[in-house]
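hey
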């Protein structure tokens, strides 16, 4: 099966390489030539542009930063020249409305569309253990499933197009709030003179355990593999966490649900990303609470 993969960044490159490793014929494109070279080295093909990559694909995957990037790539002109019944699978985290509009555009051109944002980080992408939150017609999801299952350990269907993004907004709002909770707990532990390693050990073996704590322990030291112990190199960039928390606020407004903790997390991450923290891992938000 011919698969195109647009966006070979922190997540897209390991996802595309996983597909190559499981027997899919992958043609990729990224604006960064270095990323394209890394895919080629891993056995994928590279195209000179997004449209060239997509034109002969049965399934076209996108893994781009924001809604505007996805709308740029999946535009009216490009959708007009694709093979008939191409299945578009957008794994980027974008707003619900854009996902619904892209699904309608795809339908007008005779293509399928599934929004399938992910959780699990770059390590999950490399290991093929991501969790996908999918929205789309059951037939389209059935076509996407073998590809998603090659890259992930879980594929959860939430309903019509856009509902994968709705689930992702709720999920990442939870992650942003949790990150601030972990930060404050470690800052207080520090203030009270507790050892970070011992406190980490307590939390991961007790009720305060979470994926954020375990994989993104926000203070340098206790988790040697975590971005915090590696000068906060992403990982999941703070600018992307700020974007996701903003999307969650838009979603909350659209249904009139108050999310005061989510709003505070959105405010804090937006402020941090607008300064010099945007390209650091989101866990660097700890620096705004306590000096490290
Ligand atoms: P990234 O910034 O590392 O990668 C995005 C890539 O898209 C870059 O390589 C960029 O050059 C490329 N790109 C941008 N515009 C393009 C275009 N028009 N054509 C081709 N390539 C283009 O971002 P990421 O961390 O890989 O995240 C991608 C998406 O996945 C985001 O929506 C993010 O919110 C989501 N996400 C990220 C993580 C994570 O841990 N990093 C986890 C879950 C979800």
């Amino acid at each position: 099966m011919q698969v195109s993969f647009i966006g070979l960044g922190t997540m897209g490159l390991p996802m595309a390489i996983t597909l190559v490793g499981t027997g899919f014929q992958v043609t990729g494109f990224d604006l960064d030539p270095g990323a394209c070279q890394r895919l080629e080295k891993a056995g994928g093909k590279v195209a000179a542009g997004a449209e060239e990559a997509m034109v002969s694909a049965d399934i076209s995957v996108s893994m781009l930063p924001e809604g505007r990037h996805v709308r740029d790539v999946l535009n009216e002109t490009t959708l007009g020249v694709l093979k008939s019944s191409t299945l578009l699978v957008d794994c980027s985290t974008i707003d619900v409305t854009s996902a619904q509009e892209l699904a309608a555009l795809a339908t007008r051109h005779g293509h399928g569309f599934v929004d399938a944002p992910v959780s699990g980080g770059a390590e999950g992408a490399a290991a093929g253990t991501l969790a996908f939150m999918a929205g789309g017609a059951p037939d389209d999801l059935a076509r996407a499933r073998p590809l998603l299952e090659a890259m992930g350990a879980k594929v959860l269907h939430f309903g019509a197009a856009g509902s994968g993004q709705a689930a992702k907004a709720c999920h990442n709002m939870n992650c942003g709030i949790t990150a601030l909770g972990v930060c404050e707990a470690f800052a207080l532990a520090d203030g009270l003179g507790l050892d970070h390693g011992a406190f980490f050990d307590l939390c991961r073996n007790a009720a305060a355990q979470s994926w954020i704590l375990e994989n993104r322990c926000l203070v340098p030291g206790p988790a040697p593999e975590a971005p915090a112990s590696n000068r906060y190199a992403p990982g999941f960039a703070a600018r992307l966490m700020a974007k996701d928390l903003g999307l969650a606020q838009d979603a909350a407004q659209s249904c009139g649900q108050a999310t005061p903790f989510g709003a505070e997390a959105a405010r804090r991450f937006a402020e941090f990303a607008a300064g010099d923290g945007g390209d650091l891992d989101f866990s660097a938000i700890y620096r705004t609470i306590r000096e490290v």
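The chain has a mean pLDDT of 97. The radius of gyration is 19 Å.
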